[in-house]
Design goal:
This protein has one domain. 69% of the residues lie in helices and 0% in strands. It is built from three helices and no strands. The longest helix is centred in the C-terminal third of the chain and has 32 residues. With 85 residues, the protein is mostly helical.
């Protein structure tokens, strides 16, 4: 297996886990699953504006990185013949 292919798969796994955790850290906007699990009750304990903006920025950067890694992994698989069975 190609070294670049393995590195991209590891990066994809790590970014997927981190992205899932970061999305779960966001406060609920109401009316969804966050309210069902008690997110609506903790609205008085919301984080500061700066912390929320930084969390949003980090989530967006990680999401873009995740997408780029998926595209790169697809291109590596296509041009290396790894997708052929």
């Amino acid at each position: 297996m190609d070294v670049l292919h393995v590195i991209l798969q590891i990066i994809l796994g790590v970014t997927s886990l981190l992205l899932t955790l970061l999305i779960l850290l966001h406060k609920g906007r109401g009316g969804g699953l966050s309210d069902m699990f008690g997110g609506g009750m903790s609205s008085g304990l919301s984080s500061s504006g700066v912390a929320e903006r930084n969390l949003n920025r980090f989530t967006i950067i990680l999401g873009v990185t995740w997408g780029v890694v998926i595209i790169a992994l697809g291109l590596v698989m296509k041009f290396s013949g790894a997708g052929d069975s």
